[in-house]
Amino acid sequence: MRESKRATRRQFIGRAALAGAAGLAAPAFLRAEEVGTGGKPGANGKIHLGSIGAGSMGQANLEACAGHADVAVTAACDVWKDRLDAVLAKHRETAKGHRDYRELLARKDVDAVVIATPPHWHALQAIDACEAGKDVYVQKPMTLYPDESIAFRNAAKATGRVTQVGTQIHAGENYRRVVEWVRSGRLGKVSVVRTFMVMNQGPGGIGCDPDAAPPPGLDWDLWVGPARLRPFNPLIVKDAYYHCSFMDYSGGWTPGMAPHVLDLPYWALGLGAPELTSCPGGRAVIRDAGDVPDTQEAVWRHGDVTVTWSMSLVNSYGFDFQGAGGIGRRLGVYFHGVDGTLYADYGTYKVVPEGDRLKDLAPPERTIPPSPGHEREWLDCVVRRKEPSASVAYSRRICFIYSSIECPLLQRRARVSSYVRALGRSRLIGVGALPSPERGGPRAASPCRRQPQDAFFPFTLTASSSPGTLG
Q: 173-191, pLDDT tens digit by residue?
């Protein structure tokens, strides 16, 4: 793997695109049968864990795993030396550092990986990890495109990998109680679910810091990876909050927060693919260094159930979750049934009867057992070879919902890299790789169109968010 240390971003993408066009795995690493791990704990009975991405969430997920006696951190990877060094300082006796994640995946002493890189990397690294025989914990958003969610699902299924997506609110007690209430039927038929996440960044947004040279120790070329290369700006890498303002690398605030919020209705009602997706919105107020929508209003129709999503970066009114007032981030979910409404956020819920139709407000019997912790559940499933509650098989449905409204915005702005396209069309759903519009070829068919290779695409998409309004 010495060559990969010298590989530039352009060489990486070029090799990947050619490999994808041929239907081959792009990165060069050893497969599970060659390294002999197969996802099983190491010889000392411990799960040998690697970390890809050493930012705040990556370190939090890693330490949540490393605190257990049956885990040994054997590898860490980040393209920013300062962040990598911070992780290695905590695990200096067991872990070796890498700049290129493919080197980490090639190691025989890594059974599983935590992936907490920027979202534009998630799909590629998760698929590569599966094909290298590593079990995967990947931060949300799981992926940014519908094609990518299918790719990850297919890779995990084909390789038998244990996966968990980092929607840690899924492990909370409050969501369990809400799911029990909705499933009890006491709200009556639920026909509408309204969800929202709001904050107020003001017209100035995150600010307009000028582009600059990358700081020493940061490989900006490799940080950008398969996305569109642009000059470095310190706001992009400041932290996860600022990062969500840059479409190329995050998809905006809907992929950043919707996985947590939409998880609740899709879990409680067992919703599948939408028949119709619509999303007006755009960039109406904010003028800053970023380029994401500051307003989105999405609607999904699931037979006789309609789900809505409201996202605002320019008004933080939170309805029943306003609290003490003032500017802040607020979110919530409303289940509207014929006999009552239940509204909830991460930690609380309340039931409001429709007149006298719902007289008994006692909580239903508890049927969903408590979680041992989101990371701990994944570790237990790694050992037992079971499927966790937020696996890619489950989470791809939620990922598909939010990515169905983001995809047209990204696709129309030619933000699908040649690597993602080659990977997505050949490896994931069996369609040959298409020429990249950035290289002068015809535009690829939208990954939002129905794909006969996958049963989870029977819907019509209308996307009215105008890319011209996004800055």
A: 999 999 999 999 999 999 9
Q: How many whole angstroms separate alpha carbon 39 and alpha carbon 469?
A: 46
| Cα 115 from Cα 78, distance rounded (Å) | 10
**Of 55, 330, 18, residue with least CA distance to 218:** 55
Phi, psi angles (nearest 5°) of residue 284: -100, -30
What element of type H or E holds 399?
Answer: helix 392-412
Q: Among 67, 39, 26, which Cα is nearest to 137's? A: 39
Q: What is the value of pTM for the model shown?
A: 0.83
Chain region(s) in the chain for CATH 3.30.360.10: 173-353
Return the CATH number of the domain spanning residue range 2-169+374-439: 3.40.50.720
Give pLDDT, residue 409.
55
- Single-letter amino acid code for the residue at 64: A
Between 238 and 439, the higher pLDDT residue = 238
CATH of 173-353, one of 3.10.50.30, 3.40.50.970, 3.30.360.10, 1.10.620.20: 3.30.360.10
Whose CA is closest to 163, among 372, 377, 423, 402?
377
H helix intervals, 132-187: 146-159, 173-183
Numbered ranges of CATH 3.40.50.720 in the chain: 2-169+374-439
